[in-house]
Amino acid sequence: MTPEQRIFTERSDAVSRTAMIGALVNFVLSLIKVLAGIYGHSQALVADGLHSLSDLLSDILVLVAGRQAAQAPDSDHPYGHARYETVATLVLGFLLIAVAIGIGWDAVKRLFAPAELLQPGALALSATLVSIGVKEWLYWWTLGYARRVRSDLLRANAWHHRSDAISSIVVLIGILGTLAGLPYLDAIAAVIVAMMIARIAWELGWNATNELVDTGLESARLDEVKETIRSVGGVRSIHMLRTRRSGG
Ligand SMILES: [Zn+2]
Ligand SMILES: [Zn+2]
């Protein structure tokens, strides 16, 4: 094995290992948080649980659509199958927007009808603490891999775990506030978590749409491409360089 091949294998091993563990943790956390949110009377915790569920869905999307997208071109799809992943991402974006609107609507309704505000208890509080601890651990663990194999993708995944921990901290503030006698704080925390989900949905949908309408690469990447072309022996100049993305 050449050193380049070894780095490539190490990298893809690190990506699949952290993706698998991340998906497993999201599965367990979403189950714990939705159940503890319902039985522990915290709307914000249910919202945070749905956030973890949406993370799980996008993990699965990356694994499944990624496999489909890796198929070689055939007579039906001469450009390959990479954009199946893009379309799936767009659908996920719409799904998440719907989830965010549902959570936000429910929470705002309760804010205007204070009798319907929930009173979270110890169950919701402990599930939230577990979620913060586990997600912060996952951040450091994934960041360790990112540093070892120098991967931007893994670094981005690590930061997503930390933003999940922050989402749970918002829930914690909501629950503690409600316990301290500010009954509307749990519903406000639910609205904030809904907005965080909406932001993820917007980013996914916007990037997928840009790819589907053949948006060109940003100028920094374009310069890199030009640099690479110029470095080829015998090349004198470049005309008509057109770029677009296709899946990963
Ligand atoms: Zn095909
Ligand atoms: Zn997340």
- The rough form would be described as elongated
Considering DSSP H and I runs of 4 or more, what fraction of the residues is helical? over 70%
CATH superfamily of the largest domain: Cation efflux protein transmembrane domain
Hetero groups bound?
Answer: zinc ion
Unreliable segments of 5+ consecutive residues: none
Count of DSSP-assigned helices: 7
Largest sheet: none
Structure description:
With 248 residues, the protein is mostly helical. The protein has 2 domains: 3-71 and 78-213, Alpha-lytic protease prodomain-like; 216-248. Helices cover 77% and strands 0% of the residues. It contains 7 helices and no strands. The protein has helices spanning 3-39, 43-69, 83-112, 122-149, 152-179, 185-212, 219-230. Helix 1 (3-39) packs antiparallel against helix 4 (122-149), helix 2 packs parallel to helix 6 and helix 4 packs antiparallel against helix 5. The longest helix is centred in the N-terminal third of the chain and has 37 residues, at 3-39. It is elongated, with a radius of gyration of 22 Å. The chain starts with a helix and ends in an 18-residue tail after the last helix. The mean pLDDT is 87.
